[in-house]
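your task:
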Amino acid sequence: MSEETSEETSEESTDQAAPSRRTLLGWGGAGLALGAAAAGGAAAMTRSGDETVPAAMSGAAVPFHGNNQAGIATAVQDRLHFASFDVKTKDRAELVQMLKDWTRAAERMTAGLAVGEGAYGGLAEAPPDDTGEALGLKPSRLTLTIGFGPSLFDDRFGLKERRPAALVELPKFAHDNLDPARSGGDLCVQACSDDPQVAVHAIRNLARIGFGKVAVRWSQLGFGKTSSTTPEEQTPRNMMGFKDGTRNVSGTDKAALDKHVWVTEKDGPAWMAGGSYLVARRIRMNIEAWDRTPLQEQEDIFGRDKGEGAPVGKAKERDEPFLPAMLPTSHVRLAHPDSTGGAKLLRRGYSFTDGTDGLGRLDAGLFFLAYQRDVAKGFIPVQRNLATDDLNEYIQHVGSALFAVPQGVRDKDDWWGRALFS
């Protein structure tokens, strides 16, 4: 869950216009009327009149099309709905058509438009194309990011020879207690937004479009980002009260993104060029035990002070850590690139609270999301190095998944996974 791991004016959804007609068989992909709706951008700040306002307050739209998928280097939004899917159909053509339909729906939803012909006004004899709960809401910087899991590359769809060498099965790490029901999946979609209802609406509608072809395997809601791709903003805190992601890869640092995040043609395969590899880990925190731990011990475990976030012996959060001053088993020291062969990740983690566990304890923690160019040089060495981390007394990894996140959708004729399935 490493704090240092990555050292570590848009149209509103009430616009129901669409040039195609919906049939009784359901939504098959409506035409787009995006116009300026996709011009909001992924920048951390936008213009409103004569004032510069945070993008989170502007309700802006993040462009869907590009060489890389949005939702990776994009300035991290405040809310998350992540879903992993199992593919139920055995028909390759049916799966491809679903991915095309998902892409057209994603284009509209990220622009603040309703899916297909909308939530009302269509044929009374058929369900609406859109479920309607996002009507009147702004795009709220919604991004939708798709990934393909190792299990998709079996014999069902002729993809076995197209599986990337980097899409490995993650090894079992020390202290893992993984629940199979919260792990794996053939496909994933990461929905990030500054409005939780917008994020939930997006996953709900994709699941509806995919009904009969895919089924949700597991999902996770997240709030209060625990890492930032915009270092000029205040570093967020995790559920343990410590600043998280101080040295995360910046979403505007092209050199660092090229080195540590984006897959190149030389890495192979060609369909992954411009993509990345996503590790998702559900990390349960023993909140009650942590809350009874003395402050000095908490700070020693992390290797930073709780107030400023400064490394041991330093005054400011972003001062370069002096690792020998920290305990050998401190989190920052073990996760630092100097301790992991230079490994760096781009993290987009979120806190979660999912009620209680039946014993009166909060089911809470960190939903860890990390993008990297190669997991063998990123997450795996970092996680192995954290085997002796004192923080392990207070956390447990209970869910895990790895996905190949392909290149972005280039234009209105492109679709999620086209290069893989072509």
Remarks:
- The mean pLDDT is 89.
- Residues 77-166+176-421 form one domain.
- The first strand starts at residue 45 and ends at 48.
